[in-house]
UniProtKB/TrEMBL annotation:
<keyword id="KW-0694">RNA-binding</keyword>
<dbReference type="GO" id="GO:0000049">
    <property type="term" value="F:tRNA binding"/>
</dbReference>
<comment type="similarity">
    <text>Belongs to the PTH family.</text>
</comment>
<feature type="binding site">
    <location>
        <position position="62"/>
    </location>
    <ligand>
        <name>tRNA</name>
    </ligand>
</feature>
<feature type="site" description="Discriminates between blocked and unblocked aminoacyl-tRNA">
    <location>
        <position position="8"/>
    </location>
</feature>
<comment type="function">
    <text>Catalyzes the release of premature peptidyl moieties from peptidyl-tRNA molecules trapped in stalled 50S ribosomal subunits, and thus maintains levels of free tRNAs and 50S ribosomes.</text>
</comment>
<dbReference type="Pfam" id="PF01195">
    <property type="entry name" value="Pept_tRNA_hydro"/>
</dbReference>
<feature type="binding site">
    <location>
        <position position="106"/>
    </location>
    <ligand>
        <name>tRNA</name>
    </ligand>
</feature>
<dbReference type="InterPro" id="IPR018171">
    <property type="entry name" value="Pept_tRNA_hydro_CS"/>
</dbReference>
<feature type="active site" description="Proton acceptor">
    <location>
        <position position="18"/>
    </location>
</feature>
<feature type="binding site">
    <location>
        <position position="60"/>
    </location>
    <ligand>
        <name>tRNA</name>
    </ligand>
</feature>
<keyword id="KW-0378">Hydrolase</keyword>
<dbReference type="GO" id="GO:0004045">
    <property type="term" value="F:peptidyl-tRNA hydrolase activity"/>
</dbReference>
<dbReference type="InterPro" id="IPR036416">
    <property type="entry name" value="Pept_tRNA_hydro_sf"/>
</dbReference>
<protein>
    <recommendedName>
        <fullName>Peptidyl-tRNA hydrolase</fullName>
        <ecNumber>3.1.1.29</ecNumber>
    </recommendedName>
</protein>
<dbReference type="GO" id="GO:0005737">
    <property type="term" value="C:cytoplasm"/>
</dbReference>
<keyword id="KW-0820">tRNA-binding</keyword>
Amino acid sequence: MLIVGLGNPGPAYAGNRHNIGFMVIDELIRRNSAQKLSSSSFNGELFKFSNHFLLKPLTYMNLSGNSILAVKKFYKVDEVVVIHDDLDLPFGTLRFKHGGGHGGHNGLKSTDQMISRDYARVRLGIGKPEHKGEVASHVLSDFSKTETEHLKTWISYTCEAVESMLENSLEDVSSKYTIKKFQLK
């Protein structure tokens, strides 16, 4: 299985809402003592544990699919899971689905173009900005102080769900780990 976290490379983006996929991958790397694989041809940071791969595309969000396709082809991986931020879900929610539209998410749009829509998605809600014209600044802004207090728990829980996907069906994982409403305190 290839597990991909979407985000943008570099310290300027590290705490951005758009980088929640990278944050989950970083924690999965730590939890599973994943070993870094060296290859510049993947345009991403690639790690391996057991027979599974963890990928952080370094192509910037809009070209994420290029990195995913390169790893998928080289290692002949059939199953792909993409972890990403989702504007249509409130902060702290966690949903799972197979396929579907990209909803304007450029990382998903690129992935769909390169490998089709035939992959599982782990959707982490980041909430919508008040005005539609603020979408770009919203996804590229850091989490609020209150949100940041909950990030570690949310990311850890998401990692548990992703690890469960290695041995269980998407439906089983979804029924056990979905968070429909998250209460900020």
